[in-house]
Amino acid sequence: MSRFCVYLGSREGRDPQHLAAAERLGEELARRGHGLVYGGARVGLMGRLADAVMAAGGEAIGVMPDHLVEREQAHQGLTRLVRVRNMHERKASMAAHADAFIALPGGIGTLEELFEAWTWHYLGLHDKPIGVLDSAGFYAPLLTFLDSTVEQGFLDGRTRAELIDAADPADLLDALEARLGQHA
Hints:
Blueprint: E1 3-7, H1 16-31, E2 35-38, H2 44-55, E3 60-65, H3 66-70, E4 80-84, H4 87-97, E5 100-103, H5 108-122, E6 130-133, H6 140-151, H7 157-161, E7 163-166, H8 169-183
Parallel strand pairs: 1-2, 1-5, 2-3, 3-4, 5-6, 6-7
């Protein structure tokens, strides 16, 4: 079983397509026998994804700093909730538990986590595949910007190609699983 670390919003957002994409991804992860590692929240896209994984019989591991657990943000129905001291430990623990990374729609925390995982890959700190689920075109402006950084000479095309993107959860998982198979 591979575990997929998913970065995503603790808010639902305004477009219901994002909630539906989170649910489809959760169902697909469980159906394929993969586990989920995520930030551990019970709210927003995070909660919806974890609920979908567990409803489909999958494993859901949440990683959350103590201060957020104490604010009652933690999902109490997970397979396992890992408590850590701070956000740095959270990200390190999530990465250590994961075989691949996926970003769904989210805010600055989601973007920061995505870019950190991608940077770690670029620096050779891990060789785990990374993807974005571009539900309802959420990531289209960012992907266009990243393509322009290649055109402008600030990002190598091979590095850009390491960030997989797809609009459909099954298609994204197919591509990430193919990369996992190359590294097995």
